[in-house]
Specification:
The chain is of the alpha+beta class. The protein has two domains: 7-93, Phosphorylase Kinase, domain 1 (2-Layer Sandwich), CATH 3.30.200; 98-259, Aminoglycoside 3'-phosphotransferase, Chain: A, domain 2, CATH 3.90.1200. It has eight helices and ten strands. It has helices spanning 7-17, 56-67, 109-121, 185-196, 201-208, 212-215, 219-239, 244-259; strands at residues 22-25, 34-39, 44-51, 78-83, 87-93, 98-99, 152-154, 163-165, 170-172, 179-181. The protein has a five-stranded antiparallel beta sheet. It has a three-stranded antiparallel beta sheet with strand order 6-8-9, with helices on one face. The chain has a two-stranded antiparallel sheet with strand order 7-10. Helix 4 packs antiparallel against helix 5, helix 4 packs across helix 8 and helix 7 packs antiparallel against helix 8 (244-259). The longest helix is centred in the C-terminal third of the chain and has 21 residues, at 219-239. The termini are far apart. InterPro entries: Kinase-like_dom_sf. This is Phosphotransferase enzyme family protein.
């Protein structure tokens, strides 16, 4: 499918792409106003764009722009940015890759674990110190939010679509909301995704155990995170009953919490 966001958008990109001949949306990028492969004069780019309005979604673009120089060992390079009164856009090198699969028996899982470990080995860029992780704090038991603090760089959007496998290398993409926090959080989010994909909680934790950040974590901190995460997603699922994936994710987190011996969540 080809879409056209308008002549103004094409004009905005032209200094970076040349004359735009095609805008081909990707399956990814549901949280952006536009995620597409843009074909210019002999070159292709992956472009993410938002309507240029103050607020969280614009901030996602700005965060991804700021973090990219520090994560290029794992992520496609950001090549240019463009902005006018209507749009803010970032253009990446286009890569040939497929999304991973988290289902039981998937041959992609060792690659994903390796990528998670590599995220854990990245240093914490100074810019991230202005982005402390707080999303789960409100949902935590009294005093438990302190267990989510730390000095690790976190991706925080762990899902099948954000780990890509190419012919010669693999990538972690969509660094829209990196934060500073406890290193176990990304592996814990991986556990939840695995349970949602059909793994037992025991199997899911066995995969996460390949990450030092998980192996070294305080079990009490993981338990506190499971409780906070379960509360947050269950409430979101109740508020948006039409979003069936939220209910499925809430079920997965609660199943994981029960496996860890947590009997009371809400």
């Amino acid at each position: 499918m080809t879409i056209d966001p308008g002549h103004g958008f094409r004009a905005l990109l032209r200094p970076h792409t040349g004359v735009v001949t095609e805008i081909r949306p990707t399956a990814r990028g549901f949280a952006t106003d536009l995620a597409a492969v843009v074909v210019g004069e002999g070159e292709r780019f992956f472009v993410k764009a938002m309507r240029n309005r103050p607020g969280g979604r614009r901030d996602q673009i700005l965060r991804e722009k700021a973090i990219n120089p520090f994560v290029r060992s794992l992520a496609p390079a950001l090549l240019w940015t463009a902005e006018d009164e209507e749009w803010i856009a970032i253009g990446f090198e286009a890569i040939e890759a497929r999304c991973t699969e988290f289902s039981p028996g998937s041959p992609d899982l060792p690659i994903v674990v390796d990528l998670l470990c590599r995220i854990g080995r990245l240093g914490l860029p100074g810019v991230v110190r202005d982005w402390p992780e707080t999303r789960w704090d409100w949902w935590a038991d009294e005093g438990a939010a302190a267990l989510f603090k730390g000095d690790a760089l976190l991706h925080t959007d762990i899902n099948e679509g954000n780990f890509l496998i190419g012919a010669e290398r693999s990538w972690v993409v969509d660094w829209s909301w990196p934060t500073q926090g406890a290193a176990f959080i990304d592996p814990a989010m991986f556990v939840v995704q695995l349970v949602a994909a059909g793994h037992s909680p025991e199997e899911a934790e066995a995969w996460a155990a390949g990450c030092p950040a998980w192996a070294w974590a305080d079990p009490k901190a993981i338990d506190a995170f499971a409780v906070a995460y379960a509360r947050m997603i269950r409430v979101r699922a109740m508020r948006k009953p039409e979003e069936s994936w939220l209910a499925a994710m809430a079920d997965a987190i609660e199943a994981w919490a029960r496996y860890r011996g947590i009997t009371k969540i809400m």
